[in-house]
C-alpha cells in the first residue's frame, strides 16, 4: 500500500495538514516563550518584537525538520507494524483454514467408518439370521442416497 507523497519534503499527503498545524502551534508557543523572556529583560516593545522575530525565524527550520521527521518516523513505524499485523493475520487465517480442513476431513472419515461398521454389523447379523435392532448412525454428508 503506497501512500501518495507531497513534493514538500517528500511527506505523506495525509499528514501535511497535521504537520502544518503542529508547526503553527509550536511556533506560537515558542514565540510566547521568547516574548515573555525578552520583555522581562528590556522595556522597549519594538526591540522585544525584533528579538522575538529573529529567534522564531531562526527556530522555524529546525522545528520543521523535527516535526516532519517525527511524523515520518512514527508513520513509517505504524505502516510497517500494520503490514506485519496483516501478514500475521493472513498466516493465522491460512493456518486456521488448514487445521479446520484437516479436522473436517478426519471427522468425515470417522463418520464414514462408523456408518460402514454399522452396515457390516447389520449385514453380518442378516447373514447369520440374527435380529439387529441397533439404530443407524446418521448418514455421512456426501453419502449417496439409496
The ordered H/E elements are HH
- Using the CA coordinates, give the radius of gyration: 38 Å
Distance between the terminal alpha carbons, to the nearest Å?
Answer: 55 Å
Nearest-integer average pLDDT: 81
Count the DSSP helices.
2
Helical amount: over 70%
Low-confidence stretches: none
Measured by DSSP, the beta-strand proportion falls in under 5%
Taking the sheet with the most strands, its summary is: none
Shape: rod-shaped
Structural class: mainly alpha
Task: Compute the number of strand runs.
Answer: 0
Structure description:
The chain is an all-alpha fold. The protein has a domain of 87 residues. The chain is 75% helix and 0% strand. The chain is built from 2 helices and no strands. The longest helix has 83 residues. The protein is rod-shaped.
In short:
This protein is mainly α and 146 residues long. The chain has helices at residues 16-41, 45-127.
Q: What's the topology here?
A:
Elements: H1 16-41, H2 45-127
Question: What attributes does this structure have?
Answer:
single chain, 146 residues, mainly alpha, 2 helices
Amino acid at each position: 500500500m503506497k501512500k501518495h507523497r507531497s513534493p514538500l519534503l517528500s511527506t505523506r499527503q495525509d499528514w501535511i495538514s497535521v504537520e502544518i498545524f503542529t508547526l503553527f502551534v509550536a511556533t506560537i508557543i515558542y514565540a510566547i516563550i521568547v516574548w515573555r523572556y525578552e520583555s522581562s529583560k528590556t522595556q522597549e516593545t519594538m526591540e522585544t518584537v525584533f528579538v522575538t522575530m529573529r529567534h522564531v525565524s531562526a527556530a522555524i527550520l529546525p522545528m520543521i525538520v523535527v516535526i516532519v521527521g517525527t511524523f515520518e518516523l512514527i508513520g513509517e513505524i505504524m505502516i510497517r507494524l500494520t503490514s506485519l499485523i496483516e501478514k500475521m493475520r493472513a498466516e493465522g487465517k491460512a493456518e486456521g483454514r488448514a487445521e479446520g480442513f484437516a479436522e473436517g476431513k478426519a471427522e468425515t472419515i470417522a463418520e464414514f467408518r462408523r456408518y460402514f461398521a454399522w452396515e457390516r454389523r447389520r449385514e453380518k447379523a442378516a447373514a447369520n439370521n440374527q435380529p439387529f435392532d441397533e439404530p443407524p448412525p446418521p448418514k455421512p454428508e456426501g453419502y449417496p442416497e439409496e
